[in-house]
Amino acid sequence: MSTVAQRSYVALEAELPGEWLLVDARGQTLGRLAVNLARVLRGKHRPSYTPHALCGDQLVVVNAAEIIVTGDKRSAKIYDRYSGYPGGRRVRTYEELVERDPTAPLREAVRGMLQHNSLGARQLKRLRIYPGAEHPHQAQRPAAVEFGDHGEVIRR
Length: 156
Hints:
Elements: E1 20-24, H1 30-42, E2 58-62, H2 73-76, E3 78-82, E4 89-93, H3 94-100, H4 104-113, H5 118-124, E5 127-129, E6 143-147, E7 153-155
Parallel strand pairs: 1-2, 1-6, 2-5
Antiparallel strand pairs: 3-4, 6-7
Helix pairs in contact: 1-4
């Protein structure tokens, strides 16, 4: 009997195919959509998921201005920033942030769900959010997808 160690498969970034996916955010809840987007950006929807590799897909999110928040989060949810200087704390409510940039709440929600290191920053660069239905990525032919009840990616 030979004693050969079983080797685990580890995906390399160079051999992982990256797809372009199009997600319509109209009428979806902020947190539930952000969870699914973070899952696809990390690559957890693939069987070849590797935690330390960039194995997710490119995401194009349209109609981000029409995202729903539940309860009284429109006026109660706050976004806090600090510049590092005395008196440099900036606090904005959800309403104020959406008025300035309709894509910011979704980007911040997804950013908070990714790893807080250089890999998470690279994953976040693969997320493109647009407030309306138009986007400049027709040349990449993004496949329209939806998310199922358990976060599975369903092609339309």
